[in-house]
Specification:
Elements: H1 9-17, H2 26-47, E1 56-60, E2 66-68, H3 69-82, E3 88-93, E4 111-119, E5 130-138, E6 160-166, E7 170-175, E8 181-186, E9 191-196, E10 207-209, H4 220-231, E11 242-243, H5 249-259, E12 262-265, E13 278-279, H6 280-293, E14 297-299, E15 316-317, E16 319-322, H7 324-335, H8 344-349, H9 358-361
Parallel strand pairs: 3-4, 10-11, 10-12
Antiparallel strand pairs: 1-2, 4-5, 5-6, 6-7, 7-8, 8-9, 12-16, 13-15, 14-16
The protein binds 1,6-di-O-phosphono-beta-D-fructofuranose and magnesium ion (MG) (2 copies).
Cofactor: Mg(2+)
GO molecular function: fructose 1,6-bisphosphate 1-phosphatase activity; magnesium ion binding
Protein name: Fructose-1,6-bisphosphatase class 1
Length: 362
Amino acid sequence: MFNIERSTLTEYLIDQRRHHPEATGELNALILQVAQACKAISRAVAHGALADMLGDHGSANVQGEQQKKLDVLADGIFLRATHWGGGLAGMVSEENEAPIPLPAGHARGKYLLVFDPLDGSSNIDVNVAVGSIFSILRAPTPGEDAVADDFLQPGTRQVAAGYAIYGPSTMLVLSVGTGVAGFTFNPILGDFFLTHPDIRVPDTTREFAINASNSRFWEPPVRRYVDECLAGRSGPRGADFNMRWIASLVAETHRILMRGGVFLYPRDSKDPGRPGRLRLLYECNPIGFIVEQAGGRASTARMPVLEVEPEALHQRIGFVFGSRQEVERIETYHADPTAGLDSPLPLFNTRSLFSDNHAFSQ
Ligand SMILES: O=P(O)(O)OC[C@H]1O[C@](O)(COP(=O)(O)O)[C@@H](O)[C@@H]1O
Ligand SMILES: [Mg+2]
Ligand SMILES: [Mg+2]
């Protein structure tokens, strides 16, 4: 049961470092500090009401969202676990408007850390899985304090990204750019062990995730996509679809990595000041990096999300990711909202993007 024959996270990182003979070990040290933070947050989440962890903190963050006690605690844990480490030139968190100042009189490193310390906050009080998300970028001026503009790098430049999920078991899912590996936390040994060595997102799926309460604000291509899924076997897709909505991005991501699926939190007209719900730098980019490294696709529905040039630290954006064929279909609908509508049969019969739809052509 202790699985000590499996690689630990540390062993995995040392092994990955062999691909980079010039590496100093700073990246590995930083990832291990993040993992340390996730262990501490996992304990806090697990103790729940016993440790007075539930409920509101009574404050609002920079985005005007009510902070939960665990949002604030997890933010502090991330900060303390990483800011003395030496590898960092700066850090940005969901919970802080500006980059968090690093301790004075301490050498600056070559990496930037961007994180969502507690994702899925609305689920804390109802005991549903939550998580933490992180992204690591190179500092444009290593050795010096980073400024806000230094963090505005497209997701393609991420060196590493990952998330921890605090569910029935705690897991860390990580990519250092060589695929995706999943580690399960052994609370008795206090370490993460490699349990999912090469996670791949299946190309096809019959499961989608979207917050349907926003449907009146959706754009026509999203409405069309969902309508076609809901139409099931008798509709143009010729297959029944299942639906999930957990309202924890990490939990949705984990499900999609484990068994496929497609997730949409698209651009909508709910709040004109917010083109989308999720934040580019510490939600969409790290999750997009993981998903693409696992062979899936991550998009704004109009372009690959990792290619977006960020404009602000807390920028929101439409986000669609998961099984490649479904994301490509949604992108096609956005590029041409009437694609295939004039001639219902040919689109679904040809050996094209939609050629997986055997049932309809039968
Ligand atoms: O409540 P909604 O609109 O369904 O939004 C759910 C989304 O909001 C989030 O909880 C936002 O993240 P935070 O909890 O870190 O603010 C995502 O995890 C989730 O996908
Ligand atoms: Mg979040
Ligand atoms: Mg959060």
